[in-house]
Specification:
The complex is a heterodimer of chains A (about 475) and B (about 425). Chain A has about 475 residues and is mainly α. Chain A has 22 helices and two strands. In chain A, helix 2 runs parallel beside helix 7, helix 9 crosses helix 10 and helix 13 (about 275-305) packs antiparallel against helix 14 (about 310-335). The longest helix of chain A is centred in the middle third of the chain and has 30 residues, at about 275-305. The relative contact order of chain A is 0.08. Chain B has helices at about 10-25, 45-50, 65-70, 130-140, 150-160, 185-195, 245-250, 295-305, 380-390, 395-400, 415-430; strands at about 5-10, 30-35, 70-75, 80, 85-90, 95, 100-105, 105-110, 120-125, 145, 165-170, 200, 205-210, 215-220, 225-230, 230-235, 240, 255-260, 270, 275-280, 320-325, 330-335, 345-350, 355-365, 370-375. Classes of the chains: A mainly alpha (about 475), B alpha/beta (about 425). The interface between A and B is large, with 88 and 96 residues.
């Protein structure tokens, strides 16, 4: 077989517009400022360095994103596969290295961040009444990313109300539930607690020592334990039944919040192959088993009074915390955005997503409805699915999409040029509506090994196709016009 | 039941036929294509050029799909069919025998013999090779002309717009696509085109393309005598069936390859379907030659049954189609004429600011609904089809319009304003 004609498209336009240059320069100034601070150069201006760097980044982002407003509102994925930053080019790899590097330093060389941490002291005192630490710095950067890139989402998808409401929701939960409230709790001498995270994502929230820690702390701590258990045992199944796992993954969760905002420029990089799906199913459910076993062991251990399992359960929980909590969720989950897409952690590692996915698949009213025969197989839905679901495979058969991994971000429906997809919570009877209107439902003939073995040419190579004799060729009017 | 089914053309018709033959039989299936190794969505060409997707993203099936389903893909150029000895001649003097042959050779862009139509930088847009040349001709250019007010024309205009190329859009009609769309739709889309800074020239026809010293497109001239400088000219004035192979093989052709309602051609065990086929009489399809993605898929499904011995007449069913004009999605169900006949009434609700439009045509006497047009709003296919098949009256449809709502959650719903409008028009009519 010959290869398909090369479609190496160059970056069109090439040069950046004045707006883009201004925006990037301001963001660059802010980032250089952060680097200076990191290396101690900001000490003289400690009071203003935070506001200067953040001001530059915010203003630059504002200028950059206002470019969307220059164009009529619509699906604006133009040049996504041409831009080196979003198409795994040099800039993309560089971004990946920077993100990954930040996590590595944050976890294993936190002293390097000392000056940056000190930079956020003023804010930390304001919010929490005490000095900042690296986790405050991390939470601050994380929240800034969600808010700024959330604003970008709202501008980019301003013609799509679902995207607007959903983005406001993730910004709200990150800013309020995962940043401000934990800060205020600190101010009030309460245990640190994130009301938007539940077991098994926040794996230690129902571990015996955490529960003891919270209940001993205060009456609010008792409420926290109650909230955490209710979140896992009641809200998870009930809300997933009515709305699908999206109520959490793309509306509330902080990891999802970052993926849906800062990760949006990279969503198309997720692997859509069926082999990736296979890896995903094994991996995410293994993590779920791991966290369940760990939690179970800790409780058995606790119930038997640190008996036989003492060492083992402690070892399990440390391993889990390191490999899953730190390496997978942080370094790989966010660091690899520009390489593997925005949902690597959610798709391959998050045990909460696994639980919600099982519920979504078997006990939910949620589905993505396919609109009859209107699909033109273009592939926008699959390409822009951050979870790597081959949405088109279902849509072109006229079949509803019911997949455990779907986080209900609604992007497939947003980018569809033919109005084929719609997120719906509706009667479970019609949920599995098979292929309609295009009659894909006929039973297929099963091809067995014997059938394959009996085929004469498989696959037919050019040289297996017999060459005609001159006589035959003449009959076949070889000299006739070149037509196809 | 044939032992070996050979299909020429790996577009939507050929591939749908191959898949349905596989659903129905264990026959050996060979698909021959000269264009690409694998099936890709022709409808998505524009998205590759605009950078939304790569070539590999517009392939609807993974490459392993074909092997898994026992469908052999041959990259080759069929030059002739020996209908007597039942074999297909490929370039390089190689031949493949068949028991049943499907010609699904698609269309070719129309060229009306304009002076300069073969210059560098002048082309139509139909397949991957066209995309490759378009990429070459439009690299770093400043302005382009698109000729022809059809669906490909507006797609090409959008493609060039996205690449920051100034576009002059020559449309023969007095209003964009007024041969297919009622005036309100046509106006809304014309405005949408203008809103994107496209220089839309209505009532303008191409006269010739002028070359520069290097033999490249320099400008186009119109029949009105205008000369428009441009480095690229997209000629998108429709397509015609690609019948060269059938002609060279002595298979009956007219404008297309002539077939009956079973897609049988004049040669035994040779079928033709999709864009390249022409029904031998009116009334089989929605028209003699059907050139839509959906009809191609539908032909492929039906002809597969006939090939497998379950001889099945083509039934187009309730007509539907869709398109997208820049940011405005378009869906249509049933029969909406550009100009309503005497006995047809219409209700057309629109929100010009939000660029949304919903039209229902119905029979003046029986009040039975004839069709729907939707711009910027999505309708549910199965519900519309159900209404049209059951000859629902406009009163029922307006009352139940919410059932057809397919816009996203939180989107503004239009059925109330539509119903209000309907009631008001009913009052004035009475």
């Amino acid at each position: 077989m010959r290869s398909t004609p090369s479609l190496q498209l160059t970056t069109p336009g090439g040069a950046y517009s004045a707006r883009e240059r201004t925006g990037l320069a301001l963001i660059g100034a802010g980032l250089v400022g952060l680097l200076c601070v990191m290396f101690g150069a900001g000490e003289a201006a400690r009071g203003v360095s935070l506001w200067f760097t953040m001001g530059c980044i915010t203003a630059g982002s504002g200028v950059l994103f206002s470019g969307y407003l220059k164009r009529p509102a619509g699906v604006d994925n133009n040049h996504v596969w041409f831009s080196p930053a979003t198409a795994r080019g040099m800039a993309g790899w560089l971004l990946g290295i920077v993100f990954t590097g930040f996590y590595v330093i944050l976890y294993w060389a936190p002293h390097s961040l000392e000056y940056l941490v000190r930079m956020t002291d003023s804010l930390s005192y304001l919010l929490r009444g005490e000095a900042a630490d690296r986790w405050f710095l991390y939470g601050f950067f994380y929240t800034v990313a969600v808010v700024i890139m959330g604003a970008r989402m709202i501008i980019k998808y301003r013609n799509n109300r679902y995207q607007i409401v959903r983005t406001i929701s993730v910004m709200f939960f990150q800013l309020g539930f995962a940043f401000l409230i934990p800060g205020f709790l600190k101010m009030l001498n309460q245990p640190e607690y994130y009301f938007s995270y539940f077991w098994p994502l926040k794996y230690d929230y129902i571990w015996p020592n955490s529960i003891a820690h919270f209940t001993n702390a205060s009456s609010l701590g008792v409420f926290m334990v109650f909230w955490g258990i209710a979140g896992t045992a009641v809200a998870t199944p009930v809300l997933t039944y009515f709305f699908g796992k999206r109520w959490y993954c793309s509306w509330v969760c902080g990891c999802g919040g970052l993926a849906e905002t800062a990760g949006d420029p990279f969503r198309h990089l997720s692997d859509k192959s069926s082999s990736a799906w296979k890896v995903e199913r094994w991996m995410v459910h293994s993590v779920l088993v791991f966290v369940v076993v760990t939690t179970g062991l800790l409780w058995v251990n606790s119930a038997t009074g640190q008996g036989i399992l003492g060492g083992v359960s402690g070892q399990f929980s440390r391993w889990y915390g390191f490999f899953i909590g730190l390496v997978f969720a942080g370094v790989v989950g966010v660091g690899f955005y520009p390489i593997m897409g925005s949902r690597v952690w959610c798709r391959f590692g998050c045990p909460m997503a696994a639980v919600l996915g099982l519920l979504q698949k078997y006990f939910s009213r949620f589905r993505i409805t396919t609109n009859g025969g209107q699909c033109i197989s273009c592939g926008n839905c699959s390409t822009y699915c951050e979870m790597g679901i081959d949405v088109r495979w279902y849509a072109q058969r006229g079949q509803n999409i019911i997949r455990a991994s779907c986080v209900g971000c609604g992007m497939c429906a947003a980018v569809c040029p033919r109005g084929v997809l719609r997120l719906e919570n509706s009667s479970r009877q019609t949920r599995y509506n098979g292929p309609v209107l295009i009659h894909e439902d006929q039973v297929s003939v099963q091809l067995d090994d014997a059938w394959r073995a009996s085929r004469p040419l498989m696959p037919p190579k050019q040289e297996d196709i017999p060459i005609l004799s001159d006589h035959d060729a003449q009959i076949m009017q070889l000299s006739g016009p070149r037509v196809s | 039941m044939p032992q070996h089914v050979v299909i020429i053309g790996n577009g939507i018709t050929g591939i749908t036929a191959a898949r349905f033959v596989r659903k129905l039989s264990a026959a050996r299936i060979t698909v021959i294509s000269d264009e690409t190794d694998h099936f890709y969505a022709r409808t998505a060409l524009m998205y590759i050029y605009m950078g939304h997707m790569r070539y590999k993203d517009v392939k609807p099936y993974e490459d392993s799909f074909w092997e898994k389903n026992g469908i052999d893909l041959v990259r080759g150029y069929a030059t002739c069919v020996d209908t007597e000895k039942k074999r297909v001649l490929l370039g390089g003097r190689r031949a493949i025998g068949y028991d049943a042959l499907l010609l699904a050779t698609g269309s070719r862009p129309n060229m009306f013999g304009w002076p300069g139509q073969d210059l560098d930088g002048v082309q139509g847009l139909y397949g991957i090779p066209d995309l490759v040349t378009m990429e070459r001709w439009t690299r770093d250019i400043g302005s382009a002309v698109v000729v022809g007010g059809g669906l490909i024309g507006v797609e090409m205009a959008e493609m060039l717009y996205v690449r920051h190329i100034l576009v002059t859009f020559l449309v023969r009609e007095k209003s964009y696509m007024d041969y297919l769309l009622p005036p309100e739709e046509s106006t809304m889309i014309s405005q949408e085109i203008l809103r994107h800074g496209i220089d839309l020239r209505l009532g303008a026809e191409l006269e010739s393309v002028l070359p520069d010293e290097a033999g490249r497109c320099r400008a186009v001239t119109t029949t009105a005598g205008d000369e428009i400088p441009c480095q690229f000219a997209g000629l998108t004035v429709g397509v015609h069936p690609n019948i060269g192979l059938a002609k060279a093989s002595g298979i009956a052709t007219s404008r297309g390859i002539v077939v009956n309602e079973y897609f049988e051609t004049s040669a035994p065990d040779v079928y033709a379907a999709g864009d390249c086929a022409e029904f031998d009489r009116e009334g089989v399809g929605s028209r003699r030659i059907e050139q839509l993605w959906y009809t191609g898929r539908s032909h492929g499904r039906t002809v597969a049954r006939s090939i497998c011995g379950l001889r099945t007449a083509y039934d187009r069913g309730v007509f539907y189609n869709s398109a997208k004009f820049f940011t405005i999605e378009y869906q249509t169900y049933g029969d909406i004429q550009a100009r309503q006949p005497e006995d047809v009434r219409t209700i057309c609700w629109q929100d010009p600011v939000a660029r949304k439009l919903l039209r229902i045509d119905f029979d003046a006497d029986s009040r039975v609904v004839r069709g729907f047009n939707a711009l910027g709003t999505r309708l549910r296919h199965d519900v519309c089809e159900h209404w049209l098949l059951r000859h629902a009256t406009v009163d029922t449809v307006v009352k139940d319009l919410r059932r057809a709502h397919f816009d996203g959650e939180f989107d503004r719903r239009h059925f109330r304003s539509f119903a209000r409008m309907y009631q008001q028009s009913a009052v004035t009519c009475a």
